[in-house]
Amino acid sequence: ISKGSDILLDILEWSSSRPAWQRDALRRLVTLDSLNEYDLKDLTVLCKAAHGLAERRKLEPLEECHIPRRVAGLNAVKLNALIHHGGVNALATEQTIQFGPELTIIYGGNAAGKSGYTRILKRACRARGAEEILGNVLATSVPGQPSATIRFEVDDEYQELAWNDQNEPHESLGHVSVFDTHCAAVYIREKTDVAFRPYGLDLFDKLSNICEVVRRTLEKEREELEMRQVDLPDLPEGTIACELISNITSMTDSKEIENLGTLSDPEKKRLKSVRKQLYDIQAKDSTKAAQRLTLRANRLDTLNNNLMKLDDILANNAVKSLFEGRNSLEQLRITTDEFRAKTFPPNLLKGTGSELWRKLWEAARRFSNDDAYPDDQFPVTGDGARCILCQQNLRHDAADRLKQFDKFLLSTIQQEFDRANVGYQEQLGRLENVDVVNEANQEALEELRIEAEQLTKSIENGLKQAMNRRDEVLKNLREGQPLPDGLLSYKLHTEKVATEAQMLRDRAYQLLQTSDKETKNKLKKELQDLEAKETLGKNLKLVFSEIDRKKKLAAYEMCIKDTNTRSITLKSTELTKRTVTKRLMESFKDELKKLHFTHLKVELQAAGGSRGALFHQLFLRGTVGVDLPNVVSEGEARTLSIAAFFAELSTASDQSAILFDDPVSSLDHKWRDNVAYRLAEEAKARQVVVFTHDIVFLLALVRWAEEVGAKCQHQYIRREVQGPGFSSQDLPWVAMKVKNRIGVLNKMVQDADKLYRTAIREQYEREAVIIYGLLREAWERGLEEILLGGVVERYRHNIQTRQAKNLSDITSDDCKIFEYGMTKCSRWLPGHDQAPAENVPVPDPEELKCDIDDLQSWMKTILNRRK
User: Fold this and answer.
1) Rounded to an integer, what distance in angstroms lies between the CA atom of residue 864 and that of residue 714?
2) Average pLDDT of the chain?
3) To bridge 735 with a disulfide, which of 17, 277, 358, 731 should be the other Cys (CB 3.0-4.6 Å)?
4) Is the peptide bond before 233 cis (omega within 30 degrees of 0)?
């Protein structure tokens, strides 16, 4: 309304400094007016997301396109027609509503489809609280996009808008003002306040209420989070770790905590060493204790030496060398065999030159050199020499053979083979005879288990893998297989064993050096710090959880700060002081008079500010301690709303159309009639469109329009078999005047005449009986409207005394004709049973038409006489 657009633009500019979620809330309030539970939950999430308490989501802040603006220099806007093409609820398609230049009354019963048309207009005119438009939810197919054509005039210039629910509203149509339950400017506040809020300023009230709802939700969540305290590890006081976790805040660096709780390898070793040192210090005889530690260290050294030997034997290079030696020996064996075959004649005994034979030869050599011929070089083959084995004298050929044998054995090939064989057998023997899992080593492992159980298990597992590796190597060597590509791996941890041995020696040394109390206390302090860091490392997840909780609590504080309404109250006070002027207050008083709201002396005064709003309170003048909410009824509150609506209209710079959607809900006949008069009076100054389902209010509007001389146009929205939303310019029968009823009856007679001529008689008679019933109703309406001149009407609370002068011209003929018409019609009404003997037929169409003409003639006679 008038100033409303300026107020909303001011609010738009002010909102740019507000938190993003409040800007989104303002957009919803402007386009939806009131928010549901889902909106409030969504806004709470948006508020939390701004501070990292929820996943960020897209916001839609209030923008200029959401505001029903006034166009500079634009004159009055009038509506001409609304044509629904489809997609709006279940409304019938291609239906048209025509709007008259002054007063247009659009009547429709409940579920007739009236709300569908008002939703289109509210959307198109950017009305506050415009509802979401749904398609036909009961349809079997997917409903199409809502679409309509709106024809209107801007300063008598014709325009047409192809409207759909997705496009931006037409700027000119923002001039059309809408009054419905969402736009009521008077609110009955809690307790004693009845606050008057000009259009647009109520956004501050509602935004403050939203802030309050969001704040309560946030405070509840924060309290729940405060109660969920984390059970942090109990660390010794005085340690760095204890001091750090005792002072956790939202600013605590998680990386610093993680670094402190992660022991380095040297720190882990030092922790073990300090623990053992303190344990050793407890011994009564430190010298003996140191000796025991040294002996244990020596045994670990022995164990480690054995492990290193095993590692040397099973190392990749050693195993590779063994296989290479075997392969080289086999090659030398082949060469030696070839040389032997060339050296020895083929008639020798089988096996000559073999390994066994060579042993025999070497045994003979020793016997010759040591006992038989110690002074001669073996083999002795001179004169008189005898065979070492058979003791017989050697003949010439035997002596030559012995020399040949010796030459073979002393050859380079044989000696090379012998050296290779000795080296290979020695290396193989080391592998075959390796013995690590012996009693001494087992005892050393058991001692090591006391100090380092996990290390002991790892060594035992490594020994098992090493033995399996040895067996695999031996198997391949013996079977002549090549070196396996993937030998079993093993790890004997010799460096760690050496470290353990050194630690035992260090402990022995420290034990001999440590005797004073100060040194012990230093070790205890060092142990506390290291153990605190170790405990912290085991509980990092808990500590991180507490840091996260503190950060969330800090974020909740920021969110709650964003719900503070002080800025809202300041802006509301500023705008209210600027807009609620003396002129507006006087207009409000004038409107109350026009609506005959004079039984209560209601005045408008400033009433201070509260959480986002500067209130102007309506109070009862001349009373003390009387609360207005306890006096004003629901109908009176609605009347006050309408008065405020017209008060703001009085400040408008143009006379654009106004639209009322069921303005008299909750009003009794008295206030209904007052509002009807006010709307009819306003229709002389600007176009007024009224949607209503109240037939009494419709008749009151028609009557007052005639009274004040406002042109009135009707529109009837009805539900047919096909569905709701069917439109026509005829009023429903009950609201028609006699003249219009006669027109309907004449049309019905034409249709009945066709039945009379083309259908069976019973069909015509049923239609004729219906027409006579409606004709009788027309005669009844003629009594109060024509004969009595509207002096009295049923359900009207007042008497038109100015029309009483016309009653003096009523003649006896007027009354006789009326009585005759009523009597004849009553004869054919359904429910009036005729005597069987009488059996008078239903009049034919010609007679029925004459009976209708009698009513028309009677009406014209009386009206012409009274002119």
Assistant:
1) 26
2) 79
3) 731
4) no
